[in-house]
Fold this protein.
Amino acid sequence: MLSRADEVFPDPITVGGFAAVAVDNTALAFNPEPSPAGLAGALVWADRSGLSRLVLFVDDETVVDETVVDATVADVSVGEVHVGALPVDSEPVDGAPEGVAGQLARMAKWFSFPIEVRVVVGASSRIAEAAPFPTALPADDDPELATALAAEGLERVVEQGIVRGEVLGLEVARLVRWPKTNGGDGALHLEAGVGRFDRDASAAMHGPDSGAVSLARAVGMVRAQRFAGAAGHPIARMARDRWLRVAVVDQPELVGAKELASVESTVRRPSVRDLSPAAALGTTSDGVPLMVVCTAGVDLSLVPVAADTRELHSPGAQLKLAVPDRDRLQVVERLAELLVQPAEVVAVPEPWGRA
């Protein structure tokens, strides 16, 4: 048992990656690695335990929107490290890094279940203020390089100001500026490859003129393994959340939409290997604003990220959560019901499973 003065609390239990205890109809949870999925997990436990309030403690104001430069971490999409004589390149940030606590406090507002996020400070804590939405960044674009992406039939996606080219949701190229401060020429270059190290290797071997050759190689390699009915090749298993988004954008009737277009979510995808809810905005067949957010597998971040993204792009829009039929989980259905503006979970055929 835990005690403080004349108060006695039950011992905490471990639930997933966090510690939790119920006191006076309130769930107290501590997550050492706070995230939207962790917020959802703690909320699920509180709801299933019949409690009426959640207090989520996080360790500190961990920055989630600051440039990371780490040559030891594969596929870090918030920082690029070029080998050899090529420059370090960082994705642009908005100058006001968003802390995890502030992000989660903002996401907590979209649930009808009372949630308070607190930051641990020594032996005490303080309430986390909801952070403002990340500032949208203009695309760092070049018409000639963008034409090269279009010539290969790639989907052009802009996130955090970076122009990317994708094959069925999998990034195979991006436009990267090589800053003069690190030995570059200050210009945008087309870097091709699946993941950071693939791009770095191509750029290091072939130099600034390698874009077209490397792009054709990367596109050919990915298309050979990524298609409807593809087997279990790693390339076919990557970024299925975004592949599902491609499917609903191409066939909006799958989710009862008239039209849809890809939009940026409020969270950054850590790497091409990681799931991260992928959003699209449009209208229903009746012309009502509609946000559709897609994922695949078990992804507890889906509901808080989807609700947060709706509030960024189109507050009050209908919200549909598109998942493969096998991933239509009761826990996701329940989280969707707990939103102030509830969402609908829609099962969508797996585009990678169709021959």
